[in-house]
């Protein structure tokens, strides 16, 4: 089980300072949650993940079910022991993969999606590679092609074996191309599945209900209202959030207003630096995003803007450094003058640039470490400003 | 400059215990030297390289000349500062690349070579991609296709800018397919180049002369005799060593007998576990090999044989574990019960197997760390047995 306490609410926004207590320690919120899909933060060890300032990680039920399988994880003593992370841990339910491996495969996700946005997914439509039924979702394993079925009961059973502190109800995450009727139908199914998850769960793990409803105000409100009426220990907010930050802000406002204030809210898969202050101001407590780790593996570092002039207590500003760029060949400065992580304390940009151009593996780790450290400092900065009454 | 002292000579073999003192600390010999071609041990940081027990690293003149260039390294304060390795450091001369990018490209190296061993490289022959002249070697950069020329003077100038403690004379490393006349001619050129290196060197770095001569006893003896007659601070033994360990042993015996006893001998590119005791027994002080790092990146771990029964003081035995293999899926044991590295102290084989099967980057680091630790322990074990008079 977990407990959640809110210590301070902002007077300027819906931001709040709190703490989630879990059997594996505390998460001071707001907090960035590190993405450990395959039971590791890509390129790092769990000990290093901790050193970056991460307080909690989120692993993936779908991927760990396929490989190595929840039984193997359980034999290892559960996910905490398996990956040697003795801190708060979440698992998502597999609901996102209903989208990413379903309509996401057919129409693309993110930027690719926009190119094909003339498609409309109507009620009753089925993606090519997965089959969504009233009971759950039929997948094929990408490892051996075998048939897999994931529904609320299966997701609970798997997540119980994985043994994270916080588990998520199984939901259908819809595509941005789905129309109103599709979203309404999927949401209603997600609500039925939420009740089935509550009923199926036998462990003492904390269970979060997932709010869906696409970009539709009435559906989001209905979904949040539904989740708030059930015995969940917290809430996940899933699905899409419209085409721009202003729409995302409104949607979060509609949604979070319906949820119980004394329970933590996790925003699923959102957390680019440009989103973080906005979502915290709307009252989101935790959120996860692959941006810091993904960009690191492509040679990008997030650093504070206007190196040397930025004041830490002011609104945090950032820029993205492309270390592939030749202009860093002889740059003897550290990645970020304002950063005190070991990477910035140890190496020149010149060395990091060299390693990236030489296709070495070492710099992928170094940038991952720095970026996560930067994200966590970035959130800490906002937290401090909430404490001071500035946010 | 360096100094070298021999503390103990074995009565059972030509093995010896010594210490090389450099401006960046000491190397207790015999010692495995870590390969840091591009100014990093692949996947690791220099701090971790030190934790594995490595005492010295060897970086590559040819590769660092091409990218990032010795001027960039010098601007960073030299190779030690660039890569944050404050310990003994060697650079090889680029002579190996005369082979690996020359006849090595045309006829293959290692196992591939054997398939085409009907070819004979005769005196006067030229490889397709590099041109070997009396003054040096013309290459093309693999980065931008530009022409490069590397000869004894150029190699010295580059190695001086890189600033390693020990630098190597520029030589021609011959292909195993080269005939006697080719080897004789190349060796004589290598000798002329050795004198040119001594003359060209302006720094206080220690310079090693490289013994060549292919698999021919008279050439090896002549080459060793030549190098011993010159003012070198130590010796590298390069080129090929025949088709089996018995021939390698004989060749080392012929060669090392001609060298000055009070100077360190580095065996270039040899150091599989099965070679190590043999070469140490012949009087080799240091040696480098990519085996521990290369195999790690392919999912292999070197571990002590007969887990749990091996006695550390007995002749070290080992086996190679293929962690890609499904049989480790539920293996809750550590990589090596007899190993005290952090990887063996932290993770199960089951977890490492999972990460490898999931194509994660993290396990490549973990296996690299363990393998280097294992190699260093392996050498330490032999060192202790020499001290006890058992080797």
TrEMBL record, chains A, B:
Pathway: tRNA modification; tRNA-queuosine biosynthesis. Substrate binds at residues 92-96, 171, 212, 239. It is an enzyme of class 2 (transferase). Keywords: Glycosyltransferase, Metal-binding, Queuosine biosynthesis, Transferase, tRNA processing, Zinc. Its EC number is 2.4.2.29. GO terms for cellular component: cytoplasm. InterPro entries: ArchSynthase1/Queuine_TRR (IPR050076), TGT (IPR004803), TGT-like_sf (IPR036511), tRNA_ribo_trans-like (IPR002616). Zn(2+) binds at residues 339, 341, 344, 370. The active site is at 92 (proton acceptor), 288 (nucleophile). The keyword Oxidoreductase does not apply. It holds the Pfam family TGT. It catalyses: 7-aminomethyl-7-carbaguanine + guanosine(34) in tRNA = 7-aminomethyl-7-carbaguanosine(34) in tRNA + guanine. Binds 1 zinc ion per subunit. Catalyzes the base-exchange of a guanine (G) residue with the queuine precursor 7-aminomethyl-7-deazaguanine (PreQ1) at position 34 (anticodon wobble position) in tRNAs with GU(N) anticodons (tRNA-Asp, -Asn, -His and -Tyr). Catalysis occurs through a double-displacement mechanism. The nucleophile active site attacks the C1' of nucleotide 34 to detach the guanine base from the RNA, forming a covalent enzyme-RNA intermediate. The proton acceptor active site deprotonates the incoming PreQ1, allowing a nucleophilic attack on the C1' of the ribose to form the product. Homodimer. Within each dimer, one monomer is responsible for RNA recognition and catalysis, while the other monomer binds to the replacement base PreQ1. This is Queuine tRNA-ribosyltransferase. It comes from Candidatus Wolfebacteria bacterium RIFCSPHIGHO2_01_FULL_48_22. The gene is tgt.
């Amino acid at each position: 089980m977990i407990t959640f306490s809110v210590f301070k609410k902002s007077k300027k926004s819906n931001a709040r300072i709190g703490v989630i207590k879990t059997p594996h320690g505390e998460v001071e919120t707001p907090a960035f949650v590190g993405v450990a899909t395959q039971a590791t933060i890509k390129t790092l060890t769990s000990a290093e993940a901790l050193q970056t300032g991460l307080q909690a990680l989120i692993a993936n039920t779908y991927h760990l079910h396929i490989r190595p399988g929840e039984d193997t994880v359980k034999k290892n003593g559960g996910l905490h022991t398996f990956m040697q992370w003795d801190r708060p841990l979440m698992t998502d339910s597999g609901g996102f993969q209903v989208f990413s491996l379903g309509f996401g495969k057919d129409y693309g996700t993110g930027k690719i999606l926009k190119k094909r946005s003339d498609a409309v997914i109507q009620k009753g439509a089925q993606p090519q590679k997965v089959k969504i039924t009233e009971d759950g979702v039929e997948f094929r394993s990408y490892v051996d092609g075998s048939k897999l079925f994931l529904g609320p009961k299966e997701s609970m059973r798997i997540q119980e074996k994985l043994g994270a502190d916080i588990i998520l109800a199984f939901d259908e995450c819809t595509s941005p191309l789905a129309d109103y009727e599709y979203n309404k139908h999927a949401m209603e199914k997600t609500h039925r599945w939420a009740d089935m998850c509550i009923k199926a769960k036998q462990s003492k793990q904390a269970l979060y209900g997932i709010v869906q409803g696409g970009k539709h105000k009435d559906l989001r409100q209905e979904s949040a209202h539904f989740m708030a009426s059930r015995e969940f220990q917290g809430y996940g907010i899933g699905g899409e959030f419209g085409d721009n930050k202003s729409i995302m802000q409104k949607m979060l406002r509609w949604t979070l207003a319906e949820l119980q204030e004394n329970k933590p809210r996790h925003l699923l898969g959102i957390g680019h630096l440009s989103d973080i202050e906005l979502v915290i101001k709307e009252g989101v407590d935790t959120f996860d995003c692959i941006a810091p780790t993904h960009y690191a593996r492509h040679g990008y570092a997030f650093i504070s803007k206007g190196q040397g002039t930025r004041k830490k207590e002011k609104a945090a500003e950032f820029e993205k450094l492309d270390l592939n760029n030749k202009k860093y060949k002889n740059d003897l400065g550290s990645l970020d003058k304002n950063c005190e992580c070991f990477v910035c304390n140890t190496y020149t940009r010149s060395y990091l640039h060299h390693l990236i151009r030489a296709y070495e593996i070492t710099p992928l780790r170094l940038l991952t470490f720095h970026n996560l450290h930067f994200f966590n400092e970035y959130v800490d900065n906002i937290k401090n400003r909430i404490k001071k009454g500035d946010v």
